[in-house]
Design brief:
Layout lengths: L12 E5 L20 H13 L4 E3 L20 H10 L5 E7 L5 H14 L4 E6 L4 H6 L7 H20 L4 E4 L4 E5 L13 E3 L4 H10 L2 E4 L6 H17 L5 E10 L3 H14 L3 H14 L5 H14 L3 E5 L1 H14 L3 E5 L3 H18 L9
Helix pairs in contact: 1-12, 2-3, 3-5, 5-6, 6-7, 9-10, 11-12
The chain binds flavin mononucleotide (FMN).
Length: 370
């Protein structure tokens, strides 16, 4: 079995995110925005996989954010998605994003093991604690107070890890879960277990990642480079203090054009002229009120980044400028970047053809041979 691509030697690892959702990560009514069909998902997954991108990551979403776009209202469920994507790809790591409070750990452990077998040991789990009250209301599950969500996720993950690794049945009597003779077979192919990511971005979320996950999907505050560097260093130091290591992944939204002006004009077009302010206001409301990550002043400045790419980091310009931007992120401690575009199929193809070779020349990645 090949080692999981998440641990490839590439200094800057790459992935594609959120293409299981309508609109992907761009909160806009611009022409060509992602309509989200299975045919499109399959084509994009094969394209990224064939080019040696390390990660395919679906977002866990059950309900749209309203506004003209009703952003992310059509979504494929991520474990069933992962199984299908696993069956048509060969190299990339296939993630599922699972809300701990919405799927019982016994079910989740088995579904994950199933995907690990279908993929030949390429599964990874992005476990999230929940942040969107409206989707929890559909399950009649109360969104717990912020820090309690992470206590719950910790016990949930403990149980999943035990089900993945313990050969004998065991009783479990925790604070949130109780059960008799818990057992799961087959075990995942990956030993001791599939990699785990967490997207918590509050201090509690980061502490959870450091203790329980192998990588944090961080939301950089983007005040300035020094503070982002410090945020990443702090994240990694927390893991080091626990005798663990943690990769730092971030989300980047990409607009790559022949000239910087063309790139900036298009960014302005889809964000300023065609952005869906209502959906983003709803999103920020949820994010600001229900998470402790961003203070009110930063929240306002983040409106642009949320419309452009779900609060991600901008990579905007010519292929050369983008590779320079990546170099800065790498020096700041970023290990991997999950990308989104307005036009996933056209712009991912362009990335592979025009940006990837420059990344190889810059020593950020090695040439991929399938
Ligand atoms: C890029 C990114 C993607 C995320 N994807 C999801 C997701 O798919 N589903 C979800 O419920 N939460 C998602 N989250 C929310 C996080 O799990 C987390 O709740 C949020 O970053 C706030 O952090 P906190 O929970 O530590 O306050 C995402 C966050 C970021 C930054």
């Amino acid at each position: 079995m090949m080692p999981n691509a998440l641990f490839s030697d590439n200094r800057v690892k790459l992935g594609v995110m959120a293409f299981n959702c309508s609109n992907g990560s761009t909160v806009t009514t611009a022409e060509g925005v992602w309509p989200m069909t299975w045919e499109g998902n399959a084509e994009l997954a094969r394209m990224a996989d064939g080019a040696g991108l390390e990660v395919l990551l679906p977002v866990g979403r059950w309900k749209g954010y309203g506004g003209e776009t009703n952003f992310n209202n059509r979504t494929f469920e991520t474990l069933t998605w992962a199984s299908a994507v696993a069956a048509i790809t060969k190299y990339s790591t296939i993630f599922s994003t699972v809300h701990a409070p919405l799927i019982h750990p016994v079910a989740a452990a088995k579904m994950a093991a199933t995907v690990d077998h279908v993929s030949g040991g390429r599964f990874a789990l992005n476990v999230v604690a929940g942040w969107f009250k409206n989707e929890f209301e559909m399950f009649n599950v109360e969104l717990a107070p912020h820090d309690r969500r992470y206590d719950y996720a910790a016990e949930w993950l403990d149980l999943v890890k035990r089900l993945w690794t313990e050969p004998e049945a065991f009783d479990f009597d925790g604070e949130f879960f109780q059960g008799k003779a818990l057992w799961s077979q087959p075990k995942p192919l990956q030993s001791p277990r599939p990699p785990i990511m967490n997207a918590g971005s509050s201090e509690t979320g980061h502490a959870f990642s450091a203790r329980h996950a192998d990588m944090n999907f961080a939301m950089l505050r983007q005040k300035d480079e020094d503070s982002d560097r410090a945020q990443i260093a702090h994240l990694k130091q927390m893991a080091t203090d626990l005798g663990r290591t943690s990769q730092c992944w971030i989300h980047v939204y990409v607009v790559c054009r022949e000239t910087e002006k063309e790139a900036r004009d298009y960014l302005n077009h889809y964000v300023i002229e065609k952005g869906d302010d209502i959906a983003v206001a709803n999103m920020l409301d949820i994010f600001g009120v229900q998470s402790g990550t961003l203070s009110p002043d930063v929240l306002d400045a983040f409106k642009f980044h949320f419309k452009a790419g779900h609060g991600g980091y901008p990579l905007v310009g010519t292929p050369e400028q983008i590779v320079d931007g990546i170099e800065r992120l790498s020096r700041m401690g970023v290990d991997g970047m999950l990308m989104s575009w307005v036009d996933y199929l056209g712009e991912c193809r362009q990335w592979i053809d025009q940006v990837l070779p420059l990344m190889e020349q810059a020593g950020q990645r090695q040439k991929f041979s399938p």
